Amino acid sequence: MSGPSFDVAYNVLKEQIDAPTASFFTSCVHCGMCADACLFFTETQDPKYTPIHKLEPLRKVWKTEYTFWGKLGKALGLVKPLTDEDLTEWETLVYDSCTLCGRCSMVCPVGNEITYMIRRLREGMARAGHAPPGLIGATKRAVTIGSPMGVKLPALQAQIRSVEKETGLEVPVDKEGADYMVLLSSMEIMNFPEFIGAVTQLFHHAGVSWTISSDAYEATNSGIQIGVSDIAAELVQRVVDAAAKLKVKNVISPECGHAYMAIRWEGPNLIGRPYDFKVIHILELLDQLRKEGKLELRDKDTRRLTYHDPCQISRRGGVIEQPRNLLGMLADNFVEMPDTGEMNWCCGAGGGVSANERADSLKMTAFKRKKAQLDAVQPDALVSACANCRIQLEEGIEENHMDLPVISLTETIVEHLAVKTPVEGGQS
Amino acid sequence: MNEIEFLQWVRGPAFTAATVIFVAGIIVRIVMILLMGRKANLAEARGSEMAGGIRTMFTRSFPNSGTFKRSGFTITAGYVFHIGLFIVIFLYVPHILVFQKGLGISWPGLPSNIVDATAVVTMLALIAVLVHRIIDPVKRMLSGFGDYLVWFVTMLPLVTGWIAFHRIGMTGTMLIALHILSVELLMVLFPFTKLMHTFTLFMSRWYNGAIAGYRGVKS
To answer: 0.90 exceeded by the pTM?
Structure first.
């Protein structure tokens, strides 16, 4: 990608406006209901966080380029066109105070898909050089090193060796012809390596043929968070190439929200062709194994558990009933928070916010919404399925002096699996 | 031009011109939006785009309880004035006669006193939403000239119609002429303002529901 350019960005924004976007802007009646659906507004009461307001730069382009009054006004010099200064001013609104969670899109009475448009606006913001430094850094690392957190293959190999030692099971790397190829998020490799141990034991338990590719093990995709489709496509292509090389039939998206959005929903559109393999989320696979009777539990979890829906997996991804089916099997005492499933509230750190240090204090303010939800049900443990949510939830819980463990659904299920083949040194 | 000639002009050439701008304007805008197109989705679908789209076209009229709690005033006042406008426009017998003359179709109306009361409630609801637009920090920030213009041209036919019905101040001829003129103003501005949402909201809801439905989500 060449250097930042406002002119290029303006043309990118023009191209981003398709029939749905034009319909959405035409339909907006400025009712302000999207504000009440956004945790950045509810927790600050600052009107600037109104979701549709965050789209003002894109709306300006639509108005000047695609409406009668806008075109006339532009010709007569009456309408002030979009400027680079506008984009500078909007940068924090578009990146720091939007997690692409999509809750506003569920509430808008005229049906505007606001998040769809924010994703599009970011394409122009990034081209103009108005993306947060933290996210630019993460994206550069993703392209050059292969991971937004700078995790290199030796780090993964070290974690694999430690998992193998701990479980006594083999972690198959680059195994050609496996049924499933597992992707991991950097956060899992560095902060929650238990996840690798958990899937290893799970696949052993259920007799699933799987592998990890040493070429493409990274699931996250900074390109879709920052809004540079070229980079996002390059990162998706790495996975597609690895899947082809290893001749796998399925690729598993791990417990990471935006990784699922990237590989499952945006991926084929980014690279411009359908996949030769299926993408399945780990929770979908677990639920499938449950249905097939391949998950045998030793006992149930008796704690009062609640489930935090990662936005990109539930509301934006469609994996909503699977975690509930699994929790139905696992937990004796499962309770739903108020506003759940597709209406769940974001943790406050998705959509690139966690990689953007500038937004650190704002994301903790946004966490208050989750705190209110948790206070309403008083669980013993909070289950989720996204490493990024998990970091934010743990940080928020600590900062608010709450006593609540945050656990992974996959890992918790594995902890309760019946021992099939006793393994020396294994956990269960 | 005397009162009678004024009424004839309002009912004749002015009404024709307003109708042409209204109908052609709406069609042109909708066609222009649709012509912008959208890219085919290459990801494997989990659910039906069409079913999701059609579903959301209807369900988005009924907010869930959490949303109602947070945006109760906007939803209630919005419902009241929209239903009120529907009753006043389409169920007032003299209006039905106009539709019958123009479109050749007719339907039963409501007694005038009920429409009269509805008009008052609708005007009060519109005043309430205007006050809310001015005092609510979010709405105030979002609002521009277009929002207040649209409020004014929506309110005007209600006020002129109500005054004409009660024959206050002027002759019946003049009152009815001013009422029709105010409706023509609304019709002329319709395609160029957010009044377009009357039609495009169904497109927007369809797109919203289709995007979600494709992924197996009910939006």
So the answer is: yes
